[in-house]
Amino acid sequence: MIELTGFENGIEHGPQYEWFPDGTQQLQGRCDHGKAVGEWREWNPNGQLARYDALNEFGDLLKRRRWDPAGNLTEDQTSTPPGR
Fold it and tell me: What SUPFAM superfamilies does the database record attribute to this sequence (predicted)?
């Protein structure tokens, strides 16, 4: 696996990318001062999307979708984040 992770003052911050050894993208997301935020995607080795997560600026999960390697949807979840 090949990984590119941004850091600021020793804390994960910015774009996060991972690739399988063959160069196919495995993961894409973003951290904000150590918290996963925004849209995250993870792929199977065959290139099929395996996971999609949407998180708010606090890292609370808003939406999660998962697929099996054949592309069949196996999970579709929408969450309401806690009030702030």
Answer: Histone H3 K4-specific methyltransferase SET7/9 N-terminal domain
CA-to-CA distance for 72 and 63, rounded, in angstroms? Answer: 17
From CA 3, how far away is CA 72, in angstroms rounded? 27
Q: What six digits make up the tokens of 28?
A: 């894409």
Residue 56 structural domain? 2-16+25-77
Flag whether the pTM goes above 0.85.
Answer: yes
Neighbours of 16 (CB within 10 A): 17
Q: Domain total for the chain?
A: 1
Task: Quote the DSSP letter at residue 46.
Answer: T
Query: 65 with 51: CB under 8 angstroms?
Result: yes
